[in-house]
Amino acid sequence: MATEITMPQLGESVTEGTITRWLVKPGDYVNKYDPIAEVMTDKVNAEVPSSYAGTVEALKAEEDDTVAVGDIIMTMILESEGSEAEEAQTVPLDQAEKTGGQTGGETAGEPTDTHSEKTRYSPAVLKLAQEHSLNLADISGSGRGGRITRKDVQSVIAGGHKSSGAETKQKNAAVNNEHAFAAEPAETSVSSDSGRYEEIPVSGVRKAIADNMVQAKHDAPHAWMMIEADVTDLVRYREKMKADFFEKEGIKLTFLPFFMKAVVEALKAYPEVNARWGGDRIYRYKDVHLSMAVATENELFVPVIKNAEEKSVRGLARAMNRLTADVQHNRLKQEDMQGGTFTLNNTGSFGSVQSQPIINTPQAAILSVESIVKRPVVMDEDAIAVRHMVNLCMSLDHRVLDGLISGKFMNHIKQTLENMNDDTLSL
Asked: EC annotation (predicted)?
């Protein structure tokens, strides 16, 4: 009897993953822990390892299919069961329409022609075609053996094409209603071939990010506050230390580790912020696991620095450099993304001076560090001086936090930053 392999949860709050590439095919023998597929989520790109040793019986999802956590992606004949992989079945279109469709994989070792593969469809392809009234027989497949993939269907949808049946319905509707409605002005009807816009299919990562952001805004009543800090002494200290730091560590000393240190100390002083909503209770964490938003050109990841309270500025800089490199080189692991208790967002690196971040639920708050800018500031005795100023913007879950604690927390960060200098800092 075949054993079902399901989509694993590849990060905290991750509910689905997109199979970007299968690394095995029906008939392949797989050792335990061998990678079987590359999977992409909104938080991590990772290889999924096999939990068993055995022979692949059938692939239950296509490449580019988005699969919910816990759903079946593959079946295997385990080594202990002592049998070879059986033929993986797919359903021709006429039968799929009667049965609702079955996931298709190729028969192990069977040579197939273009026609036989073209009429084999995955449930995702069938569902997408039905939703948009497309005739799959009219679509050219780019997959193996001419097989139609989800990307092929999305391409047709993006091009504004419809099946002959849908076109007939539209024409009949137009005839029936031509006397009932006045024609819309031509400028309000924009087609994809007009040159005024282009339609971009939503990738698995972008869809997952969108779903998580909507869920976070829906679940958590967001409140927002901002405070400014004078970091002139910190700017001078970093300028003095950065050359020596680079010589010893081999990495640049940015401002971010100093802000991380200030946030960690504030979380220790106000553990109410280092918490999450639990429905009928609030969970308050004893350790500070700092989630750090790291963006690539097209994706956003939130790796976690575990036990950040135990690290110096130098240690935080090392940890951040390692995680950034792992993101850039696609080396993040599942455990790198889990367990965060508070999120820090470095929007200042893009030149932003004010933002309203969305909470990384179920955490209670997220803080954005904005750009450090020179501004004239009124000092003691009404003297005006040019100072290095920074805005700190925090979004908070009002179920967990109120203004009093949040204000004290933000003021603690401000005081820590404004007192960072030669006398108080030790890398």
From this structure: 2.3.1.-
Task: Let me know whether 229 and 127 are in one domain.
Answer: no
Task: Categorise residue 13: left if φ over 0, alpha if ψ from -120 to 50, beta otherwise.
Answer: left
Task: Based on the residue annotation, tell me whether 398 is a catalytic residue of this protein.
Answer: yes
The parent domain of residue 102 ranges over 3-157
Encoded amino acid at 381, one letter: E
CA-CA distance, 293 to 302, in Å (whole number)?
A: 5
Q: What is the largest CA-CA distance in the chain?
A: 87
Q: Which of 211, 244, 402, 422 is catalytic?
A: 402
> What is the three-class DSSP state of 182?
coil
Rg of the Cα atoms in the chain: 27
For residue 204, tell me if it sits in a domain: no
Answer whether residue 11 is part of any domain.
Answer: yes
* pLDDT tops 50 at residue 400: yes
**Residue 109 in tokens:** 């070792």
79 occurs within a structural domain: yes
Neighbours of 11 (CB within 10 A): 25
Residues 152 and 268 in one domain: no
Please say if the pLDDT value at position 340 is more than 80: yes
Q: How far is CA 57 from CA 1, 95, 401, in A?
A: 10, 22, 51
Q: At residue 226, what is the residue type?
A: M
Alpha helices by DSSP H, 43-122: 93-99, 114-118
Point out the catalytic residue in the list 42, 398, 422, 423. 398
The number of angstroms, rounded, from the C-alpha of 204 to the middle of its chain's C-alpha atoms is: 9
Q: What is the signed CA dihedral for 192, 194, 195, 200, rounded to 10 degrees?
A: 0
CATH number of the domain encompassing residue 33? 2.40.50.100
Helix axes 256-269, 403-418, angle to 10 degrees: 140
Residues 196-217 have pLDDT tens digits of 888 888 777 677 778 888 988 9
- Contact (Cβ atoms closer than 8 angstroms) between residue 130 and residue 174: no
For the chain, the domain total comes to 2
Domain-embedded: residue 296: yes
The pTM (predicted TM-score) of the whole model is 0.60
* 7, 37 contact by CB (below 8 A): no
Cβ atoms within 10 Å, residue 235: 18
